Structures are given as C-alpha cells and as structure tokens.
C-alpha cells in the first residue's frame, strides 16, 4: 500500500514497481522499505471502498504521442497502416527521444508535420523534467502533476480527422480549444462558438441523450429492450424481446432482437464508459450458427472502442462475458450516489414486514421492560395503514392491555419507525 496523501492508501502491484524491461536479477536486487519515497502514477480511480491503483511505470499523454520514461522503446499506433508513414514517424521520434526512454506515436499523428510532432514530443519531455524536479523537492506525499481536465482530454483523445465540428457555448472553453490547435489551422476551423438563443444542449437534444445514457432500460428499434443493473463486482445487461413479432419464426424473431442488442450493447459500453466485468443475458437461441453470429457482431462492434475489450464465448444459457478496461468511474457512478433511503440495495422491507417488526418490539417493551401507559407509534403511512385496520388494532390493544396511538413519520424510508410510551 502506498500513501499518496489521500484518505485511502493506493495499491501498487509489486510488478508495477519496476520498469517493464527490468530483469529478474534487477528486481531481486531492489530493496523496498517502509517510509521509502516512490514516484507513482494513478492508473485507476478510487472505487467505492478501494483506493486508487498506481504504477511506477509512468506514461504521459500528449496530442500526438505518449512518453514512457521507464522503458526504451519507439512505437507507432497499429491504426497507422501506411509503412512509409510509420517509418517517417519513427524517424522523427528517434531524433528527439533521449536514450532509455520510450515514446509511442498516436493515430492522430499520421500526416502531421515534423515540426508539430517534434513540438509535442519536446513538450512531453519538459513535463517529465518538471515532474522529476518537483519529486526531488517533495517532503511528503503530494500531487506532482495533474492530467488535463475533461474538456482538454476530450479534445486531445477524440478529435480526429473524421470529426466534422466541435461546437462550444462557452467563450473561455472556445479560446482554450483554439489555443490548443495553435498552428493547426484546419483543426481550428472546425471549432465554433455557439451563439444561438436556445441553450446548446436543448438545441441538439443532448439532455434527452444524457437521460438515455443513465436510464436503466433503453429500447431497441424492434421493440425489444436492454436493462442495465450495476453491482460492485460487475454490470449485468438483460436482453428482452418485448413485443417484436416481425420474423416468420420464433427463432428468427429472437435472433433479430439479439443482433440489434449486440450492436447497441457495444455502443452503450462506450457511451456509458462501463468498465470491468460485463455479463450479457441474451434471449435463448438453440442454433449454434446464430449464437456465433451474435459473438461476431459483438467483437466487430467493440473493435473500434478506445478501451481494451475482450468478448468471451457464449455459454449454454446464452450468457456472454465481456471485460472492458476500467480506469475511472463510469457515467452511471459519476452521475449517481448510493441511495440514503434503501442503503443502495434497491429494495425496502414491505409494509407487512415492518408491521411485524413493530409488533415484536411492542411485545418486547411490555413483556420484558414492563413499560407503563399507552403507546404512540410513529411510522410510514403504508405501515400505519395496517395498524389502523379495526380488527388488528383492537386485537393488539387487548393483547398489550393498553391503547395505541399513531403518528405519520416524515421519513421517506418505510423501514424507519419509533415507538413511545405515553408514560415516558
């Protein structure tokens, strides 16, 4: 465990403490002691009860490249397919890269000038030098470098040649983005400052889309639906056929809905930024070829995901396991916090269960503690409705040998109640 200056200690795997190229002998000769200072980078956010995950293998992302100070390597994104361009990019990196460090050229660097790429690489090297200086001066755990905020990360990571336009409704944000594209006039021309009277999100119906992205259930074009349930360990997606009857046979109907679901699930994983383990419950199909086709659709549609996605086979129960790299909170976790009424269980005790619980407490109070006087019960209206039943009320009053009075509780949780003796 590593103290990084937060309430929760961070977790550092032993293998992440050493450079990727470290030999077995180098690892064995390294001695780590309590209180020793270590330079680490957070690679996974805090999750509920877990602290952040960190690594000593630092990587710093720029617009066109990623710097890896602990490994000697030059790489080019696999998505840059032209061999001449790959060779050109490697040559530019080789002319700048210090010995012992690594750099990976990103997809968006394809076609950029040598000057632009060199400027980005030099910026990354200056950033690393600044981090090292701060580390040497640090007397206690502290943040040495913070990655760009959400706005600039989005521009850095998602602004590619196929983006038609970036529309911004905030002048400061507009100036930051255009400043980021200084010297890249073609990219800068794609950035526009919105001047409409209607709010930007309303004009482009973004609010509706955001609601869909956090909704538990979303509809498919055929009439089927997907239901999302999140737990601490995994996300479960249930595929329902709904009322779709468009195909000639039941098997074809189920196959059609499952095909729609497979494509939409891949899309929702990206949009909702769902990470970790995902379990998909497809509608039952007996045809092995159709089951294989569903897997092919999932694999094809997740191939474009920036996060690493692995689709496992389909079980006999039509369950498919998917893993997607998880580095930060998904959209659902970022938008919602645990329910303070149901303690995040999603359920509450039924009125009947609470009624029985109160009756047990009444008997305990009268038979064990021998309280005196009549009794006031403060509870949720759904629970009081059961007490107000004439036969129940009269029966309890005879059993307890005292009068019962009722008061509606203002608490939203029906499990919460109070019992008072009028003699108190």
UniProtKB/TrEMBL annotation:
Q: Which Pfam families match?
A: RNase_E_G
Task: Kindly state which keywords UniProt assigns to this record, in alphabetical order.
Answer: Endonuclease, Hydrolase, Magnesium, Metal-binding, Nuclease, RNA-binding
Q: Which domain of life is it from?
A: Bacteria
**Keyword Acyltransferase carried by entry:** no
Q: Name one GO molecular function term.
A: RNA binding
**What GO cellular component entries does it have?**
cytoplasm
Entry's InterPro entries?
NA-bd_OB-fold, RNA-bd_AU-1/RNase_E/G, RNase_E/G
Cofactors demanded by this protein: Mg(2+)
Query: Which processes are annotated in GO (biological process)?
Result: rRNA processing
In the UniProt record, does the keyword Nuclease occur? Answer: yes
Q: Which residues form the RNA-binding protein AU-1/Ribonuclease E/G domain?
A: 59-326
PANTHER family (alphabetical): RIBONUCLEASE, RIBONUCLEASE E_G-LIKE PROTEIN, CHLOROPLASTIC
Q: What is this protein called?
A: Ribonuclease G family protein
Q: Which organism is it from?
A: Anaeroglobus geminatus F0357
